[in-house]
Specification:
Length: about 600
């Protein structure tokens, strides 16, 4: 999961119950079918209609449960709390049932035959892991809705039929099952890992290496043709770079589900053949978007397939902690940056800025081992270590890449580690262990031991040896301070430009006479066309001695020029740069990292 905003997670989990007791094993069931009603009437009530049909061989109790979380989203959300009007029946007659705990139901059949149960699901949550509806749209994950028989494993097939309006679209990664709006999965893991969009949304596709990359976006008008073409240009480059690491694209097709209405929080959640992204309307032209697509896209290999043994197979009834999120999420952050520079979306300066950003995020962080921090997202820690496995894991991946290349004279790399583990663990139906990971890192480095590195910097609390290792790639870092101007406003970007939505009391914008609703056209010499323009403005006028700048805005039908007082604020950042006169070997290592090549 790409972390941007966590407020919705905290709200949804504030009243999470304690872990459930393991219920008894269900009687076997076969011929499992689900039906989801997402028509105008259902979404108008902010609900989804859910039914499940299956066959039983006798009167033994059937025990069904809903997941407590969605893999990739390491938060217990307890989807059963949104179930209403639970009702099982057979041959038109109601069946006896009871709850064994807050996420588990026990149904008592009267005889062998078909059991049908139904319930309504409240779909009003603002979270990419939870079902959500609008008057002409529905989104859901399989973990939200699809009950499973407890203790019967997850290898059974199922079908899903969607009942919706004739003119509405359906997008999912599931395979068509033949009948109209009916889809199939060979096992529960696939069933719950392929989200659905239903309704009036935009849809388009492009090919990358013979695989279809699809873009489903809501609202349908949110992506202009220019934005759509730009997005496809990004994903073609990103997925080509990621595929080169592993040697294959393991999905039949890949879908980017993107919501851009005004109530989302921002961020992404990975699935095995898709990603679900929430992007504020004002951020549709933001510079971080290709990085979001790159991070979530790399997850199709790293964590959805290649993942720690602690998480193979997935369990759904409770938390599944691992000490390896620094690899699953942090190393993915590193490859998110690599996907962009190797794909030609960004340049070396942007890559160095990304590494500098990771360093800045770890400076001053609590002295907590990154393996310990990996265990903690389930409890939203208050010690300042929340999410530390992202930037620190990214830096560890970067350092290991340099050290492997240095020890092997640039004949091997972290790419080799990822590809070998993918082939030797995922393709053999298991997750990787500590021995797998560090053994492969050592072999890639020509037999070099990383036991001391793991003890001190992964399981230990020592500061990462950034400077000494980066020198091996002809790189250096320094902490610098810059004074830059700030306005004190919030904005939203749409087809009409950049509109002011809020003004901070006492800020420069308030002093200039700027009003909510004004559309900013330019500040000094900088044209304001999107949220990214403000970064250009801050950079352009950093350290300026000017007392004021002209601020051009459109106010109603008029263009008004205001005088914006310049108020500078200090910002500390970490700058990564090349070392002049670095050795040929260091330059080869640095270039190999950015190009994805070895000698």
């Amino acid at each position: 999961m790409h972390r941007l905003v966590l407020s919705a997670i905290l709200v949804l989990t504030s009243a999470a119950p304690v872990a459930a007791q393991t219920p008894r094993v269900s009687a076997p069931i076969t011929d499992v079918q689900y039906e989801i009603t997402a028509d105008s009437a259902a979404v108008g009530r902010r609900q989804l209609g859910v039914s499940m049909t299956f066959h039983v061989n006798g009167i033994a109790p059937v025990v069904l449960a809903l997941p407590a979380w969605s893999p990739g989203h390491y938060v217990l959300l307890w989807f059963a709390r949104r179930v209403q009007q639970f009702s099982p029946e057979s041959n038109g007659a109601p069946l006896a049932w009871k709850k064994l705990d807050y996420q588990t139901w026990e149904i008592v059949p009267r005889s062998a035959g078909t059991v049908h149960l139904s319930f309504s699901y409240l779909a009003d949550a603002v979270d990419r892991a939870v079902a959500w509806t609008a008057p002409n749209f529905a989104f859901f994950n399989g973990t939200n809705l699809f009950l499973y028989p407890v203790g019967r494993g997850f290898g059974w097939p199922a079908q899903v039929t969607v009942r919706t309006e004739p003119s509405w679209r359906i997008a999912t990664g599931m395979d068509p099952a033949g009948a109209t709006n009916t889809f199939k999965a060979s096992n529960y893991h696939d069933l719950t890992d392929m989200p659905f969009y239903v309704g009036r949304f935009g849809f388009d596709s492009t090919q990358v290496g013979g695989k279809w990359i699809r873009l489903a976006f809501y609202p349908a008008a949110s992506l202009t043709p220019a934005r759509r073409d730009r997005t496809f240009g990004w994903v073609q480059k990103i997925f080509s770079a990621h595929t080169a690491v592993f040697g294959e694209a393991p999905f039949r097709n890949y879908t980017i589900f993107q919501r851009s209405d005004t109530v989302v929080n921002g961020g992404g959640l990975e699935h095995q053949s898709s990603q679900v992204d929430e992007v504020l309307t004002s951020q549709l032209d933001a510079g971080y978007l290709p990085g979001l697509y790159s991070h979530e896209g790399f997850h199709a290999w790293n964590v959805k397939r290649l993942r720690p043994a602690d998480m193979v197979p997935y369990r759904y009834d409770d938390a599944q902690p691992t000490t390896w999120l620094w690899v699953s999420e942090g190393v993915t952050d590193y490859y998110g940056e690599l996907g962009m520079i190797r794909g030609g979306i960004t340049d070396s300066a942007a890559f160095f800025n990304g590494i500098g950003g990771f360093i800045a995020q770890t400076v001053g962080a609590p002295g907590i081992a990154v393996s310990d921090a990996s265990l903690s997202p389930w409890i939203a820690p208050t010690d300042g270590s929340g999410g530390l496995y992202y930037p620190k894991g990214a830096l560890i991946g970067f350092l290991l890449d340099i050290m492997i290349r240095d020890a092997s004279d640039n004949h091997s790399s972290l790419d080799h580690v990822m590809r070998t583990l993918y082939n030797n663990t995922y393709k053999h139906g298991r997750g990787f262990t500590s021995a797998d990971w560090w053994g492969e890192v050592g072999r890639a480095a020509g037999g070099k031991s990383f036991a001391d590195f793991a003890r001190r910097y992964v399981d230990g609390r020592e500061p990462l040896p950034m400077d000494s290792v980066m020198r091996l790639a002809g790189l250096q870092s320094r902490i610098d301070t810059i004074r830059e101007p700030r306005l004190g406003i919030s904005t939203a970007t749409d087809t009409g430009g950049v509109a002011v939505t809020a003004i901070s009391p006492g800020g420069a914008a308030e002093a200039s006479g700027l009003r909510v609703g004004d559309r900013i056209l330019s500040i000094g010499d900088v044209a304001i066309t999107s949220d990214d323009s403000f970064g250009t403005f801050r950079e352009h006028y950093a350290g300026t001695a000017l007392a004021a700048l002209p601020l051009a805005v459109r106010r109603g039908a008029q263009t008004v020029t205001l005088q914006l007082p310049v108020r500078l604020f200090s910002r500390t950042f970490t700058q990564v740069s090349t070392i002049p006169g670095a050795s040929d070997k260091a330059v080869r290592i640095r270039n190999g990292i950015m190009k994805g090549t070895t000698s």
